[in-house]
Specification:
Blueprint: H1 3-15, H2 23-39, H3 45-66, H4 68-74, H5 80-86, H6 100-108, H7 119-142, H8 147-163, H9 173-195, H10 201-227, H11 239-247, H12 250-261, E1 265-267, H13 271-303, H14 308-343, H15 354-358, H16 368-377, H17 381-388, H18 390-416, H19 423-456, E2 461-463, H20 467-475, H21 481-484, H22 511-514, E3 517-519, E4 525-527, H23 538-553, H24 556-572, H25 581-586, H26 590-599, H27 607-632, H28 636-656, H29 661-683, H30 692-714, H31 722-749, H32 751-754, H33 760-787, H34 799-823, H35 828-836, H36 839-862, H37 873-887, H38 892-895, H39 900-928, H40 933-939
Antiparallel strand pairs: 1-2, 3-4
Helix pairs in contact: 3-5, 3-9, 3-28, 5-9, 6-7, 7-8, 7-24, 8-9, 8-26, 10-12, 10-13, 10-14, 11-13, 12-13, 13-19, 13-34, 13-39, 14-18, 14-19, 18-19, 19-39, 24-26, 24-30, 26-30, 27-28, 27-29, 27-30, 28-29, 29-30, 31-33, 31-34, 31-36, 33-34, 34-39, 36-37, 36-39
């Protein structure tokens, strides 16, 4: 064919109109399949490591259940080995029950009646079951560390106190038949966790620490460079984004520090070194937040169209000061990078490659060059350290030089660019200088500590936990998030979810917490109660104690225990009735009781979603159990291998997709029940020869009964909605922020207090209050997320407004913490001078702010409207600043005063706080409304 003949059909085809055909759709499908196949990537080994560990532990437990010898040695409860491991990630303690119930039930039996199920013995067992479940539930919800112990105690209770009904005589060994597999399961989990790719707490900590330090260093460089640019669109930072970047991995770092404190370490560093490192990186956050705030204020000034003269003055001053501050900022950035590199040898175990991880625990035979490099560099290591040790001294000298140069430059610069007539810009430079100085001091402290450990911690050794750390571990009621879930996962609301706050769901409106103290005649402090005076006589103190007991009895924890105990007893009744005990035992109705106790929790925003996911997980587990059994065809070795593959996939999904946690856990539980029970029926452990689908149907039915019963009891007497708890919790947090603000501002209102420096205990208590605020806000973010799962039955939830309220309260908590951090550096004489200046105007200004915060907290909590006439915090600030500007003029002595920088930082931070409060007031006004007197007048015309 010639070229011309070959080209002709193509030209004709292009000239013809296109006719519709299904080809484009097919091409889209092909393109989609091609893209889908191209995007399929095998996840990295590190992602699969923990799922494989958990699947391996489950497979070992399944093999022990499938093996005849192991099953006979463990006893009839051998299935619990696998079930317990589901809740043992990683290994946990287990619960223990007493044999007194079995003994008392046997005493109540009539020996003349051969059948063991009798009314009197059943009544005794029911009483013990009710009391035991009640006590365990109250402990579980009151003491977060006892969560896993109570779960395993519930499993043992459910089996022991139901099997005792059908067991004649007194057999204490019945308890041990179920306690042994729980112990074996705990041992398997502990062995796999410690021996198969063990997680080194020191390595985990250093990974998080170095990542956080690198993030802080990057943040410092970005915002320092942005501050010295005159473009208003340099770095678009907001207070919420500022918080997110700086808070990042801080809670995770604290959890990793706690893990280091309670572990036996083989490392160069010990627990006290880790505490020091944690303290150093936590101390970097306040000055970094202040530097970020300086950038925000500078951008606001440059974007203010009504402040053209101030903008010109600010730009001119920035161009002059960049020469002074730039060497110090570059030195801080380089010094932090250097500290990161010098801390890497203290990293614990070096990260393993994929090949070395698979070959574990064999030696790293493929990493010989590391040891050669180590030997070659050993001789020059000391010289290297000596060379690095000059950095902290040079940084100190540079800081002193910069401070002197800035003091000499600032006043002429202020006069030249008229900054002394623009207090906002003048305080802005004072804020940046103050934060940069403190950040540099923190970096110097970090370098000094690095130099110290380089000299003292030259080799690895064993470090054992201290008594103080162990006491803190076992006797503290504060939950440790790292034990239960990843702190970044807000959807981790399974049985292992615990509250980080002191208040539980439904207990946020505690009148005692919102009241003040009053001193009784006996000298004891009581919360002020407007209904009664403090108890004075013995009779009054007795009834006051009774009143407190009644309040505890109707608290949410006690009511949860009562509901759980009542539901468990009702579902266990067939075990204690002669006509139904045999068939209920044959169906293994114990699992309905266990599922009820495990999954009964306070109803929250995820109630409907959680219930649906649990039911779907139960059905999926039953179907998957049938598939696994049909694949293995009853071969115990094949069954163990197939179960291992299924477990690995399910746990991988569980750990990578938080939304499927409940689904995966119920799938694993039901899959294990179906596979193991079917095998037990096949080998004759249980009488009968039921097919796999019958066994799967029974297991699905029992688990679904437990899930549905837990769901029904959770909403009795009424469901607790996350959006309601969010509103109450936000009101509680605003009140606490106002309390902290009142503590700080008292330093400027009372001259006698202003002359006193805060004590060590006061500083520690203030930090504890700010940490409580952080935990409260973390819970509020969880409530906010849960509210998206609640159906809008009565109306749409104003999520955007509540999100704005939450972010604003979070920013206010950061700012008030920064104000407390700055206040420590203002000298008492300067504070007293501030307290004596414009005392009345300052009192009116602070009273307006405190009243606004109290009104916001009250109206949010009680759903009341705001009053029609109110002086907003923004107006109060403008009035006070106007009076202040008429009375104050800064001189060169003021600007060079040691307290001027901290004073400027306090002014800038408090102004940002008031601005956020004004925005919060406007947002809350949109939520609760404002009383309108004109409306009443119109109705009564």
């Amino acid at each position: 064919m010639s070229k011309r003949e070959d080209d002709t059909p193509l030209q004709n085809t292009q000239s013809l109109p296109r006719e519709p055909s299904p080809t484009p759709r097919r091409s889209k499908i092909k393109q989609f399949m091609h893209d889908w196949v191209a995007n399929i990537k095998i996840p990295p080994f590190e992602t699969w490591r923990k799922p494989v560990k958990q699947a391996l532990a489950m497979m070992i437990a399944s093999i022990m259940t499938l093996s005849d010898n192991c099953r006979h040695s463990i006893g009839q409860g051998s299935l619990l080995c696998a079930i317990v491991i589901v809740f043992f990630f990683p290994a946990r303690t287990f619960g223990v029950v007493f044999e007194v119930s079995n003994f008392c039930a046997n005493l109540a039996r009539d020996p003349n009646i051969p059948y063991p199920v009798q009314p009197k013995s059943s009544g005794v067992l029911i009483v013990f079951l009710f009391i035991g479940v009640y006590v365990m539930t109250v402990i579980r919800f009151s003491v977060p560390r006892a969560n896993f112990a109570c779960i395993h105690a519930a499993i043992i209770f459910a089996f022991t106190l139901t099997d005792s009904s059908l067991t004649p005589g007194f057999h204490p060994s019945l308890v041990w038949q179920f306690l042994i597999p729980v112990t074996v399961g705990a041992g398997i989990s502990l062995a796999v966790s410690a021996l198969i790719w063990p997680d080194d707490s020191m390595t985990n900590y250093m990974n998080v620490f170095l990542k956080g330090l690198e993030g802080h260093n990057t943040f410092f460089k970005e915002h320092s460079e942005a501050f010295f640019t005159v473009s208003p669109a340099s770095v678009a930072t907001t207070l919420p984004s500022l918080h997110d970047r700086l808070q990042g991995c801080m809670l995770t770092l604290i959890d990793c520090k706690r893990a280091v404190h309670r572990d036996i370490l083989y490392s160069r560093l010990n627990g006290s070194d880790i505490s020091k490192l944690t303290k150093l990186i936590k101390e970097l956050r306040p000055p970094l937040h202040g530097i970020g705030l300086s950038q925000i204020i500078k951008r606001e000034i440059l974007q203010d169209e009504s402040a053209q003269m101030e903008q010109d003055a600010l730009k001119g001053a920035i161009e002059e000061l960049v020469k002074v501050f730039q060497p110090l900022t570059e030195a801080c950035y380089n010094a932090t990078e250097e500290a990161i590199e010098r801390l890497r040898p203290f990293h614990g175990n070096r990260p393993r490659s994929i090949l070395n991880s698979i070959l574990w625990p064999f030696p790293r035979i493929f990493d010989v060059h590391h040891y050669i490099k180590k030997l070659m560099g050993a001789s020059t290591n000391n010289d290297f350290i000596e060379e690095k040790r000059t950095t902290s001294r040079s940084l100190k000298e540079l800081l002193i030089q910069m401070a002197a140069e800035a003091d000499n430059t600032m006043w002429p610069l202020a006069v030249q660019h008229s900054l002394n007539h623009h207090e906002r810009s003048l305080h802005l430079f004072g804020q940046y200088r103050y934060q940069l100085r403190h950040y540099t001091q923190r970096i110097v402290s970090l370098l000094e500590f690095v130099e110290e450990i380089e000299q003292k911690r030259t080799r690895r050794r064993f470090w054992f936990p201290t008594i103080k750390a162990l006491k803190k571990r076992f006797f503290s009621n504060k939950p440790n998030e790292s034990e239960h879930h990843q702190p970044e996962d807000p959807l981790d609301l399974t049985l292992v979810r615990t509250n980080t706050r002191r208040e539980a769901l439904g207990d946020l409106e505690n009148p005692a917490e919102q009241a003040s103290y009053v001193l009784s005649s006996s000298g004891k402090l009581y919360y002020r109660d407007p209904d009664v005076d403090p108890p004075a006589s013995r009779r009054e103190r007795f009834w006051y104690t009774v009143h407190k007991m009644i309040l505890w009895a109707v608290s949410s924890n006690s009511m949860m225990g009562l509901k759980t105990a009542a539901g468990t007893v009702l579902m266990a009744l067939p075990f204690y009735i002669a006509n139904s005990a045999a068939w209920y035992m044959e169906w293994r109705g114990n699992w309905a009781l266990i599922i009820l106790q495990i999954w009964l929790s306070r109803a929250s925003g995820m109630f409907i979603y959680a219930t649906v996911m649990r039911l779907l997980g139960t059905v999926a587990g039953g179907v998957l159990g049938i598939v696994v059994w049909e694949i293995a065809q009853g071969n115990p070795y094949g069954l163990a291998v197939v179960l291992f593959v299924a477990y690995a996939i399910l746990y991988y999904i569980l750990m990578t997709n938080p939304n499927t946690r409940m689904f995966c856990i119920l799938t694993v539980v039901t899959l294990t029940l179906v596979a193991i029970y079917t095998y037990n029926y096949k080998v004759g452990v249980f009488p009968g020869n039921s097919p796999v689908w019958t066994i799967a149907g029974k297991r699905i039915l029992l688990v679904c009964i437990g899930v549905v019963a837990a769901a029904i009891l959770s909403i009795i007497p009424r469901p607790i909605m996350a959006r309601v708890e969010l509103r109450k919790s936000l009101a509680h947090t605003v009140r606490d922020v106002g309390r902290l603000y009142g503590i700080l501002t008292s330093q400027f209102l009372v001259p006698e207090i202003a002359m006193l420096n805060p004590t060590k205990e006061q500083k520690k208590g203030f930090r504890r209050l700010t940490l409580d605020l952080r935990r409260q806000i973390a819970e509020e973010r969880t409530y906010m997320h849960l509210s998206s799962y609640e159906p809008p039955l009565r109306g749409r939830f104003p999520a955007e407004r509540y999100k704005a309220v939450l972010e604003t309260v979070d920013s206010m908590a950061d700012l008030v913490a920064g104000m407390g951090y700055i206040l420590e550096d203002i000298r008492p004489s300067w504070r007293q001078q501030m307290a004596n200046t414009l005392q009345r105007e300052r009192l009116d200004y602070i009273a307006s702010i405190m009243t606004t915060m109290k009104l916001i907290a009250t109206t949010l909590s009680a759903k009341m409207a705001l009053p029609p006439y109110l002086i907003g915090p923004g107006d109060a600030r403008d009035r006070f600043l106007q009076s202040l500007n008429h009375r104050l003029e800064f001189s060169s002595e003021d600007i060079t005063h040691p307290s001027f920088l901290s004073y400027s930082a306090y002014i800038v931070t408090s102004s940002a706080f008031v601005k956020e409060l004004q925005y919060l007031l406007e947002t809350v006004e949109d939520l609760v409304g404002v009383e309108d007197p004109q409306e009443w007048l119109r109705k009564h015309m």
